[in-house]
Amino acid sequence: MARYILMASAALLAVIFSQETTANDEDGLLQKPIDISLPESTGVDNFPQEQKPATPKRKRPKYCSNSDQCGKGFCCLQRRPPYGPRVCRPMAGRYRRCGEDQVKSGYYLRHCPCYLGTNTCENGYCVP
């Protein structure tokens, strides 16, 4: 019986000793730099055309002389009277700046009116 206790104690001592030697190993505790190297360039873009960020293209303003020349939902607007250019702008939406002072020629000064039927212009803003 003493023989089995001695063998079990020796085995337990061997396990404890192996755990102690690996616990003092500092390789597992220190941070190491990670090598993140990109593949060599082949001269061709690696990304398809769809994944490249698109640069927004700004549309040129459509010049007008009256609101009839603009499409539905747009008005002919002169922002800087009396000499500024007249361009087609969208009608004012809910809670946006608006103006109802249309000139006899059919264009508006400073702000477009509210979109038809949805809002009314009160104190310079479109309200429902």
From TrEMBL:
<feature type="region of interest" description="Disordered">
    <location>
        <begin position="39"/>
        <end position="67"/>
    </location>
</feature>
<protein>
    <submittedName>
        <fullName>Putative ixodegrins large 4</fullName>
    </submittedName>
</protein>
<feature type="signal peptide">
    <location>
        <begin position="1"/>
        <end position="23"/>
    </location>
</feature>
<keyword id="KW-0732">Signal</keyword>
